[in-house]
Every structure is written in C-alpha cells, then in structure tokens.
Amino acid sequence: MVNDRKRKSVLPGRNPNSPFSMPSSPFFPSPNAALILVLFAFSGMQAVSLLWRLLFPFARDSVSGRYAEILTQQCLLLALPAVLYLRRTRPRVIALRMRALPMGACVCLLLAAAASMLAANALTVFWALLLDVLGLPLVSSSVPAPGNAGELWLSLLVIGITPALCEELLFRGLVLPSLERMGTRPALLLSGLLFALMHGQITALPAHLLLGFTLGYLLIGYGSLWAPMLFHAAFNGITMLFAYALRGFALEQSANGLPALPAAELIAGAAPVLLAAGLAAAALIWLPLRQAARWKNPPPRFEAPRERLPAGAKALVVVLIVYFLFMYGANMYMTAYWAGVSIDTLSSLNVF
Q1: N or C: which end of the chain has fewer CB within 10 A?
Q2: Has residue 341 got a pLDDT over 60?
Q3: Which of 139, 144, 140, 162 is closest to 65 using CA atoms?
Q4: How far is 208 from 239, CA to CA, in rounded Å?
Q5: Taking the CA of residue 76 as centre, how many other CA atoms within 13 Å lie in the half-sphere pointing to its CB?
Q6: Structure pTM?
Q7: What is the tally of structural domains in the chain?
C-alpha cells in the first residue's frame, strides 16, 4: 500500500510502482539529452584542465590547486548542467528516486564501501601487473594524495563528497534512467561503462567498471539515488584516508632505504585481500536488498520493455566510446613519452 504522501508526488492517473521509463514518459530525460550532457562534461573537463594550466601554471604543482580544479570541473560541468536540465522534469522526486534510506541500510552501505575499496585496490594491483607484462605504460592517478591533515580534510570534501553528488546526479540521475527503455540490465551495463571510461585512467579501469555497475545496481535495488551517493562518498573518502596513510608509510619506507615490494609479494598479498573483501562487499550489498523486498512500500521496479535506442543516441554512444578510447591512448602515449610509472611503484597505486 502506497501512503498518501507518496501519492501526492505522482501525477494523477499514474501508479508509482509502474514502469516510468517509457519513451514518451515525462519523468526521465531522453537518451540524446543525457548522452549529450556526458559528452559536454567530458570534453569540458579537458578544456578546463587545459585552461587551468594556462591561467594557473603553478596550481597543478600544489595539492590544493589540483583540488580546486577538480571542484570546478565537478560543479560546473557535471552538476550544473544536470540540475538545469532536471528543472524541466516533473515531478523531480520521482524522476530522481529520492527515497529515504533506513539506518540499517546506510550502515551496510558504509561497510560495503570500505570492503569494496580494499577489493578495488587489490584488483588494481593485478591489472597493473598485467599491463606491465604486456609492456603498456602505467598511467598514475591525476588526483594527488593528501600530504597533511589540512589536505586530508580538503580531499574528503572535494574527492569524497563532491563527486558522489555531481557524478551520481549525472550518471545515475540522468544517464541510467534515460537508457532504461532498453531494459534494466543494458542500462546498467552501458551507464557503468560510460562512467568508468570517463575517468580516463587505464590503471584503474577494471575497478571503475565494477564501481559503475555497483552504483547502478544500488540505484535500481534501493529505488533511491541516496544509495549510490552514500556508497560513492564513502568509497572515495575511505580511499583518500587509505592514500594518506599509504603515503606516510611509503615516505617512511623510502627514508629507511627499504626497497619496493616485488611483484610476487604484491600478488601474494593482494589475492587474499581481493577474495575476502570482494565477498564481504557482495554480502553487504546483497543482504540489505533482500530485506528491502519486504518493505511495506517497495521501491518502483523500472522494468521497461526492451526497445531500441534512437539513431541519434546510438551515434552519441559510439562518439563517446571513441572519444574515451582516444583519450586513453593519448594518456598512455604521454606517459610513455615522459618515462611513465615503473613497476616498482605499484605498492603506492590507488583507485580514485
């Protein structure tokens, strides 16, 4: 039974548990509009990065300057266009699936994010070793690790909370719902793929793919955008805490003249972490959703008929993937040109 407060947020004559993701539905954006916003965001981020180098040539050498650049990109190129577009969508509460989360689910999401971070870092080690075996350069993260307490708090705001709000608003608030006319699974896969590719970091590509699919699964499972936002913020925030601690350990190790860990020891240490953390994260994500199915007011199941994307949306998907792959290749080429990152630095790799 849907309570009266929920009914008031739905247009007359519509059932809140019916599939809203129809091509003519006023609740969600069109695929063309959502994909154009992704293309605008990614190309705009490249332009802002170039402009930032020209206007503030010394800013990229400082952690706070790099954080200011990321904050500008996230707010102006991801969040602002999405918010302006959503002003045309009625009712926005249903379109964004802003359902409240129970406290138990929030705790499980925080614990799942911590386990997922450990699994993602272990997976990144394996992937980086494979890239090195194939002779491909390792592109390190462009997000600097905090070096002191002040930078740590700033990173938790800029890298932890801001992307969780801005990126989720674009990808899980607009892109995934706009693609659901193809069905839930294709929408999850395609939106997760675009989310991972937009990060432009081949060293963390598998981890970003799993993160993108997980965030979409949480949106569908909980029927609330707050679930992927909370998970994303916790994942990024714990990653920055881990990077801060690891940086201090690496500096201490270097000061003592200790060599970096060889590949064999990295594999031996990462394998059990990947297995245990992956199983823990899967359990913490899946079990609360089993409980969610027994709520008196279950989240809407947006199972739309399998329909084809418009020709314009298909063209935009191709353009986005080609653009992303081109940027990946350019980043790898520049890394190889500037001597790149050696296999000896794998112990300091992190996922951002």
Answers
A1: N
A2: no
A3: 144
A4: 13
A5: 13
A6: 0.82
A7: 1
- Token couple for 148: 């002191």
Residue 15 lies in a domain: no
pLDDT digits (tens, 9 = 90+) for 118-146: 888 888 888 888 888 887 777 766 777 88
Cβ proximity of 212 and 324 under 8 Å: no
Q: Other CB atoms closer than 10 Å to residue 222's CB: what's the count? A: 24
Residue 60 lies in a domain: yes
Q: Can you say how many angstroms the Cα of residue 336 is from the centroid of all Cα atoms in its chain?
A: 26
Structure tokens at 6: 């929920």
The full DSSP string for 138-203 is: B---SSPPP-SHHHHHHHIIIIIIHHHHHHHHHIIIIIHHHHGGG-HHHHHHHHHHHHHHHT--GG
Q: Which amino acid is at 175?
A: V
In-domain check, residue 328: yes
Residue 8 in any domain: the answer is no
H runs (alpha helix) in 13-102: 31-55, 63-73, 80-86, 92-96
